[in-house]
Amino acid sequence: VSKPSDLVQGTLDLLILKILALEPLNGFAIGQRLRQVSDEVLQVSDGSLYPALHKLEQQGWITAEWKLTDNNRRAKFYSLTRPGRRHLDHESANWERLSTAITALVKLKEA
Amino acid sequence: MMLERWWLIARLRLRSLLRPKQIEEELRDEIRFHLDERTRDLQTRGMAEDVAANAARRAFGGLDQRTEECRDARQIGPIEDLGKDVRHALRLMRRSPAVTAVAVLSLALGIGANTAIFTVFDALLLKPLPVDRPDTLRTTEPIARIGAGAAKKSFSLPYEFFQALQRDDSVFSEVLAFTIGNEPVLSDGTRVLPTTGGVLFVSANYFSMLKVQPQAGRLFRPHDGPQSQQAVVLGDRYWREQFAADPNAVGRSIHVNGTLATIIGVTPSEFFGLTVGRAPDVYMPIVPPSPGAPASGVQIVGRVQPGVTDPEARDRLTAFLQSHQPVATNRPALTVEVLPLETGLSTTRALFGKPLSALMAMVVLLLVVACTNVATILLARGAARRVEISIRSAIGAGRMRLFRQLTTEGAVLVVCGGALGIVLARWTVDVLLRLLQLVDASLAVTTVLDARVLLFSALACGVAVLVAAVAPASHALRASSGAVLRERSEPSHSLRRPGGAFVVIQVAVSLMLVAASGLLARTLYSLVTIDAGFNPNRVAVVSVATGARGYERERLVQYYEDLSVRLRAMPGVEAASLSQFSVLTTARTTGTINVPGFAPATDDDRWVQVYQVGAQFLRALAIPIVKGHDFTDADLTSTPTAIAINTMVARRFFGDENPIGRSIFGDARHEYRVIAVVADGRYNTLREANVPIIFVPYTERLRERMTYTVRFSSTTGESETAALQRVLAEVRTLDPLVPAYGERLQALIDRSLGQERLLVVIAGWFAAAALLLLALGLYGVIGFWVTARTGEIGVRLALGARRSQVIWDVLRRPAALVLLGVTLGGVMTLAGARLAGSLLFGLSPQDPVTLATATTFLVAVAGLAAIVPARRASRVDPVVALRCD
Fold this sequence. Notes:
Strand order of the largest sheet of chain A: 1-3-2
Number of strands of chain B: 25
Largest sheet of chain B: 14 strands, mixed
Strand content of chain A: 5-15%
Structural class of chain B: alpha+beta
Distance between the termini of chain B: 64 Å
Number of helices of chain A: 4
Oligomer: heterodimer
Radius of gyration of chain B: 38 Å
Helix content of chain A: 55-70%
Number of strands of chain A: 3
Radius of gyration of chain A: 15 Å
Largest interface: A-B, 28 and 32 residues
Strand content of chain B: 5-15%
Helix content of chain B: 40-55%
Shape of chain A: globular
Distance between the termini of chain A: 30 Å
Number of helices of chain B: 26
């Protein structure tokens, strides 16, 4: 997926927030984590991650800070803000409802 | 939570705006870090370094595009654009400094004048009093309706009534009383302290009810017991002027009318009592009248009970007063009117309300002229820039974007002009107050550049932006729509020469201003040249305050007569007399008279104005005597008492009969005998004619302040000022402890016309400014039109057109516009002048001569401004003109 569709874009925001809810990470690490947790199913191109991150930052959901990485390089680390955490709760609840509905719909079709 | 999020966002946006470079660097670093990490990652999987770097770049996708997307996330585009527009506008302004200067100065003039006039207008007329809950305060005005006519006389209420109201809270929850002290003499024991604001006697709860806090010492308190010594509170201004704002002034003593009093505190600077435009110098507690003493009047102010309407309050107070009226007097029944006090009492409002309203209206018109002037200039420039605008729009600038850019250009001019205007206003306000103080020396106003004033200025700027920025911008865009680029060489008749409507408005409004100042100037001229019924030349008026001496009756008469004799004996003095006040002051005394056999149509007909005078009074003022003779020393003591009447009284009470030697009865059937009939005169104000006036001996009722009127011979060659100084010296020689103030009667007359003079001066400035702006605007706009048509004019000249034809052709449109504007302005002047009717004197608001003169003058100025660019057009060199296209 080079340019995420609208559905995936919304999902991408949710995934980023979810990942950052666990611990503050830099952009590269977020990409890696995304791949790991989705078993390489969700392949977000490196480039499209950054506009998403910047947008989330400008919306006040996440905040950034320059810190040193494990191997002593300066990197921009993102972390969830308090409003961001609430937003994540709200969005994941939404997602669950939506996915339950879709799953039900898809199963219906199979039957 | 919401707030926290907005705070985060605001901080980021602000940072994006203020630190654009740092943010860019961070973005680059962030992406470089990513690429490095990815490269390293790929290298660990066995790629060569350069291959890995390329792969990392590929994996990232369009690097520039992604970076731009990150920038877009910041969403500060509109603000950045604004910054660019402002910079562009400033560049344009620098490129044509003359146009910029004219535009900025026009707007500074318009906005500055508006701010200044509004500051004073607001302080005197609109602003709520700086006291606790001013909206709940009510003033009481007892009014007696005399006869069936509209004649009203207001009295003050008895102190006992105030005491009764304090005990009763059915109408007012709290009530205070105050009364203005009569001509106090203040001294610090060694010298007399000059006072302009006088003494205000206040009830003990005055300050606490209004919740006024002292800036030094303390103020009166409701339950202050009797003091061992009289206590006074100083007004802020007096404290600054006479005590150099010395905090140690508190505790010192001053003499008030001879009694020693201790200064206990100072009122805060924003407090001036309840009368706008006045600031008492000294506050003292009201002394309750001792039983049996004549009732002394006070002004009563209450805080109305919630739920009580003003008509209810009026009815209750009236009933209450009638049940409390101590003894039946011969006065008609009083009604107690209850009036809102939110903006203060209105003595200055009566004096300055109308002139200031007129100035406010005129200054708004001036702003319209200034804005339309800038609008025409910008429109013309917009027309000259049509090509630039079309090119911009052809290469993809959105219409909205272009509109915003053009509006910003105008708005930047307005902001510069507005800022300059507000700075100028600070200074103008001082000048304006000085001018007002020439009219009313005791005027005290604190004007501050507060939020109200700034809001008004912002409003004025808003109007300016709308007229001077938005209108030209939308016009320029409309004009540039379509195939302007192709249109360049089309004949100019099809070109839209914008600005016509603005020229018309500017001419119309300027005409209103010029006509208004003309009407006011002719009013002043009528007043200056009017026959007042007395001759003010070579006359000095000197008032003496004998109250400082506390003389008994006989000693007082002795003093007045001694002074009269001394003044009459001075060389060069033709006549000297005294009266209770000078002519043309606001003071007046009234009374009623009866003549046997005269049945008045209404009670009002019996009211006359009373002048208490000494011997030689008629001669001293050169009042023409129709019949009879001037007061002599013998007339001061004769029985029945001597009386002089004016023609109006003679005609009303005696018809065609000869009044000399006839009897007139005053209050309590006191008998007078008529000794003279004098011509009617304008003794109160020069505007007021037909007042019934009687003159009686001053000894009838002695007063502690009298005014001497001294006429000098014209043959001595001595200046009036020198003569006045001699009189003052003579007064001081007789008794140095009696304070005396004097001036030339002519100076007093000039001062009494101060209001009119002030209006003429300011309206004149406004008119001159409007004409100057009009001339600059016309000059500029015609200049631009000529430039736009240079090519066409060149062709016509080359084809043999005469220069006069070209001039006429250039002038045709401006001439039509000016004529249209003059017509419109004439109609508006005729309609609007009626509102100013009461300010005028001796001419009709629709005076045709003034309007015609103003029109001629304006057309002449417009013609001068137009002819210069028109002549330039006729001198276009065809060859040059054709080549330039």
